[in-house]
Design brief:
A hairpin with a 2-residue loop joins strand 10 and strand 11. The termini are close together. The chain is built from no helices and twelve strands. With 137 residues, it is mostly beta strands.
Length: 137
């Protein structure tokens, strides 16, 4: 979660490193949603502004060819998108001062790098021995 961005257009990119926690069984990258600004706001499609942008929103750009969508009532919007391998990433270009990446934490979750406007801001290990849903990671 980044809450101190300047006003204007930004891009969040989450890139899979292909690495995992020693206890993890996989290296997956999962997107449940991105939240821009405050979560109570409805999505504003043009420009992409405040609201919850679910994994199936047309404004979200997926890199890599092995993405799959899974349905689950535990996930925001009822689904998530997951991919494995170091060549996958997901991005959203938005207008606003804050953004959060919402994902699962599971025993098969990998380690992912988060970039804002091309600058790496975090490395996130999403491993959890028990599944946790709709987590701001």
């Amino acid at each position: 979660e980044v809450t101190d961005l300047s006003d204007g257009k930004h891009t969040i990119t989450v890139r899979n490193t292909g690495q995992k926690n020693a206890a993890a069984s996989g290296t997956g990258l999962t997107l449940d949603a991105f939240i821009v600004g405050v979560p109570e706001a409805q999505p504003t499609p043009d420009p992409v502004g405040a609201g919850v942008w679910e994994n199936d929103a047309s404004a979200i750009v997926y890199e890599g060819s092995n993405w799959s969508t899974g349905s689950s009532s535990f996930d925001s919007g009822g689904s998530n998108a997951t991919a494995y391998g170091a060549s996958v990433a997901v991005s959203l270009t938005f207008t606003g001062p804050a953004v959060s990446w919402v994902s699962r934490k599971t025993s098969a979750s990998g380690i992912n790098d988060v970039y804002i406007d091309g600058r790496k801001v975090a490395t996130v290990d999403r491993y959890s021995s028990s599944a946790k849903y709709q987590q701001k990671v």
